[in-house]
C-alpha cells in the first residue's frame, strides 16, 4: 500500500468523522472567510432551526439581514470590532426565521489568524437559546411583579409608604436642582375608629379602598403620586405644584370624599365620612431636609384635626430659595 495514499485516506476519513460529529449536534457550526466575508461552511442544522437552507447563507450580509432590527447595529458593530482585534467573543441576538418569526441565538466566535498574525477566518457555533431567554424573561417579569407588589398597598392597590418614601426623596432631589415648588397633601379620615366600631372592619376596608381610588383619580399627572401613608392616613406627592394649586387639589380631595357619600353615624364632623387635611409647598433649599417638610405638613394635618376636623390647614410660609 502506498503510504501517502493511506495517509490521505486516513485524513479524509477523519475529516468525515469530524463533519458527522459537527452535523449531529444541536449546535450549528459555521466558518466565514475574512477576506471575502463569505460563508465557507454552515451546518445543515440551520435549515431545521430557522428554515433557511445552508446554501442561502452566502455572505455576512445574509447573516446581518436575518437579524432582528433592534439587535442588528449593536451585534454587528461588536462582532466586527472584536474580530478585527482578534478577540474571541460571543453575542446574543434574535435571528429571523423563514416563516417570519424570531429565534434567540447565541453565536460563539473564534478568530483564526494566519502565520503572519492577520485574521484569516472566523469559526463558531450558533446555539438556540430561546428557552433560556424565555426563562430569563419570566424571572425578570416575576421580579418586576414582586417589586411592584412590594411598593403597592395590599388593601387599596395604590402606592404604599415604601414607594412614597422612594419617590419623595427622588422628587426632593429634583426640586432642589430645578428650584420648582414641591407640594404635599396629607389626609386623615375623621373618626375612622368609630367607623370601624360601628360598621365593622369589612366596611372599613371598603371605605379605605373607595377613598384611595378617588385620590388616585385626583393625582393623575404622570409624576403625581397618591399613597396610603398608614392606617387611615393618605398622602399626595405633587411635584412642580404651587401653593395655590396644592390648595385647590386639597379642596378637590374634600369634594371627592364628600361625593362618595359614605354614611358615618359615629362622626362628630357630619353624617358621612370626611377627612382632615394638611397642605404644604416648599422650594427646596440646599440645606433643607425632606423629613422636616414632611413633619411640617403632618403638623398642619393635626392642626386641622384639632380645629374641628373636616377642614384644611396649610403650612405657613414657603422657604426662600
From TrEMBL:
Q: Name one GO molecular function term.
A: diguanylate cyclase activity
Q: What is its EC number?
A: 2.7.7.65
**Matching PANTHER family:** DIGUANYLATE CYCLASE DGCM-RELATED, REGULATORY COMPONENTS OF SENSORY TRANSDUCTION SYSTEM
Would you tell me the protein name for this molecule?
A: diguanylate cyclase
Record-level GO cellular component terms:
plasma membrane
BP term (GO), one: cell adhesion involved in single-species biofilm formation
What's the top EC group for this one?
transferase
Query: Which InterPro entries does the record match to this protein?
Result: Diguanylate_Cyclase, GGDEF_dom, Nucleotide_cyclase, PAC, PAS, PAS-assoc_C, PAS-like_dom_sf, PAS_fold_3
* Chain ranges of the PAC domain: 89-141
Cofactors required: Mg(2+)
Q: Which organism is it from?
A: Pseudoluteimonas lycopersici
- What's its catalytic activity? 2 GTP = 3',3'-c-di-GMP + 2 diphosphate
* Pfam families hit by this protein: GGDEF, PAS_3
User: Where, by residue number, does the polypeptide cross the bilayer?
Assistant: none
Q: What are the top taxonomic ranks of the organism?
A: Bacteria, Pseudomonadati, Pseudomonadota, Gammaproteobacteria, Lysobacterales
The superkingdom of the source organism is Bacteria
Annotated GGDEF domain ranges read 180-317
Amino acid at each position: 500500500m502506498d503510504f501517502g495514499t493511506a495517509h490521505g485516506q486516513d485524513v479524509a476519513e477523519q475529516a468525515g468523522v469530524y463533519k458527522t460529529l459537527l452535523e449531529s449536534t444541536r449546535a450549528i457550526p459555521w466558518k466565514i472567510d475574512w477576506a471575502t466575508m463569505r460563508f465557507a461552511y454552515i451546518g445543515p442544522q440551520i435549515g431545521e432551526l430557522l428554515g433557511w437552507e445552508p446554501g442561502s447563507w452566502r455572505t455576512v450580509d445574509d447573516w446581518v439581514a436575518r437579524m432582528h432590527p433592534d439587535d442588528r447595529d449593536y451585534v454587528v458593530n461588536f462582532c466586527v470590532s472584536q474580530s478585527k482585534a482578534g478577540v474571541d467573543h460571543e453575542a446574543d441576538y434574535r435571528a429571523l426565521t423563514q416563516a417570519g418569526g424570531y429565534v434567540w441565538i447565541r453565536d460563539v466566535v473564534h478568530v483564526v489568524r494566519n502565520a503572519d498574525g492577520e485574521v484569516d477566518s472566523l469559526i463558531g457555533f450558533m446555539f438556540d437559546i430561546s428557552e433560556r431567554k424565555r426563562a430569563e424573561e419570566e424571572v425578570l417579569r416575576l421580579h418586576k411583579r414582586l417589586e411592584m407588589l412590594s411598593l403597592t398597598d395590599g388593601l387599596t392597590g395604590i402606592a404604599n409608604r415604601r414607594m412614597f418614601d422612594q419617590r419623595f426623596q427622588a422628587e426632593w432631589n429634583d426640586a432642589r436642582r430645578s428650584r420648582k415648588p414641591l407640594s404635599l397633601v396629607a389626609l386623615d379620615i375623621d373618626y375612622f375608629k368609630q367607623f370601624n366600631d360601628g360598621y365593622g372592619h369589612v366596611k372599613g376596608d371598603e371605605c379605605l379602598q373607595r377613598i384611595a381610588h378617588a385620590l388616585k383619580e385626583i393625582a393623575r399627572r404622570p409624576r403625581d403620586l397618591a399613597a396610603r401613608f398608614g392606617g387611615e392616613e393618605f398622602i399626595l406627592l405633587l411635584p412642580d405644584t404651587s401653593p395655590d394649586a396644592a390648595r385647590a387639589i386639597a379642596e378637590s380631595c374634600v369634594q371627592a370624599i364628600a361625593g362618595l357619600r359614605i354614611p358615618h353615624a359615629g362622626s362628630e364632623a357630619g353624617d358621612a365620612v370626611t377627612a382632615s387635611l394638611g397642605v404644604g409647598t416648599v422650594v427646596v433649599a440646599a440645606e433643607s431636609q425632606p423629613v422636616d417638610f414632611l413633619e411640617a405638613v403632618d403638623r398642619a394635618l393635626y392642626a386641622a384635626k384639632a380645629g374641628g376636623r373636616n377642614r384644611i390647614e396649610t403650612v405657613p410660609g414657603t422657604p426662600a430659595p
